[in-house]
Amino acid sequence: MKLRNVLLCAALAIGSTLYAQIPVDRVDAYFPAPVEVNGVTLPAGNVSIQMVRNNGTMFLTLRSASGEHVNALVNRFEDVSSDVSEVKVILDQKDGVYHLEKISLPNHITLNVLHAQ
User: Fold this and answer.
1) Cα–chain-centroid distance for residue 42?
2) CA-to-CA distance for 47 and 54, rounded, in angstroms?
3) Mean pLDDT, to the nearest integer, of 40-59?
4) What residue segments make up the domains of the chain, in order of their start?
């Protein structure tokens, strides 16, 4: 059974807009436990999440303070039911391992992580 956990961390939005509908292009967060993204385990601690758009494709680059990094392809969509006032990093827990599920941004924008198979 999947348990969705909202990472209880203070996310600080830094930088200019990626484009008009996405209000941030970088988020600094703190993971209290290791988090797996596309087969790479990022250790607990500070993580920088950069949102990058390239030729219509959007992906995230996650970098831990200790140097590990990984890229993740994302789908961007408007979620009118989401009304967050700050950035929220949402994790999924499966078999005792946390996985990055999505990032909810202000203005009803959600970035769903596409998991590598």
Assistant:
1) 12
2) 22
3) 91
4) 3-113
Calculate the CA dihedral of residues 76, 22, 69, 44 and round it to 10 degrees. -100
Length of the chain: 117
Q: With a cut of 70, say whether residue 18 has pLDDT above it.
A: no
Closest by CA to 44, choosing from 29, 32, 62, is: 32
Gap between the terminal Cα atoms of the chain:
19
Q: CB-side exposure of 84: number of CA atoms within 13 Å?
A: 18
Q: Give the type of residue at 5.
A: N
Q: Scanning the structure block, which residue is given the tokens 């219509």?
A: 56
> Mean pLDDT, the chain, as a whole number?
80
The phi, psi pair for 62, rounded to 5°, reads -105, 130
Which tokens in the block code for residue 105? 């941004």
Measured CA to CA, the distance from residue 105 to residue 84 in angstroms comes to 7
The residue among 61 and 83 whose pLDDT is bigger is: 61
CB 32 within 8 A of CB 44: yes
Q: What is the pLDDT of residue 6?
A: 38
